[in-house]
Amino acid sequence: MPTEAKAQSIEDLRERLGTASTAVLTEYRGLTVRQLSDLRKQLKTASAEYKVVKNRLARIAVKDSQFDPLARHLTGPIGLVIARQDPVSVAKALQVFGRTNPKFAIRLGLVEGKVLEPAEMRALADLPSKEALRGQLVGALQGPMSQLVTLLTAPQSELVRVLEARSKGSDNSENQSENQQEAIRHGG
Hints:
Elements: H1 4-18, E1 22-27, H2 33-45, E2 48-53, H3 55-62, E3 78-83, H4 87-100, E4 105-111, E5 114-116, H5 118-125, H6 130-185
Antiparallel strand pairs: 1-3, 1-4, 2-3, 4-5
Helix pairs in contact: 1-3, 4-5
């Protein structure tokens, strides 16, 4: 039976995981406190958090949850990344940190119910973020739509130009006939 403090730790971890869509197991052996603090800061900008967990307590916390597949990988010194939003930005932050800290390693990820190996996490990091994808989609849709609008309004624009030219032409012919009549009156 876990002590009250351990029971509280289990419950806290369950609550955090309850609102998460992504969890990543990492190895932090050999990293300094300062490096882990830097990692936490980078993950915070990606709306994620980093927690060093006790394996036995973490196994209890993930049991019967969407993160249950992580349980068998909870061995050795483990850090847990918990993210509620965009998994791509979390993967990018972890990849950037891993480049500057070679002792840091991703062991396994669970993204929206799918288990991802380290190579798959790297591939996820190479994807554009959701915001960038939305921008690309809007741009892709906007181009053809503006061409369609131009195409549909072109005949109307031409009609307006023809009518304007004709109107100006009829004004010029009226002026010419008035000038001719005036010349006749003056004996011209």
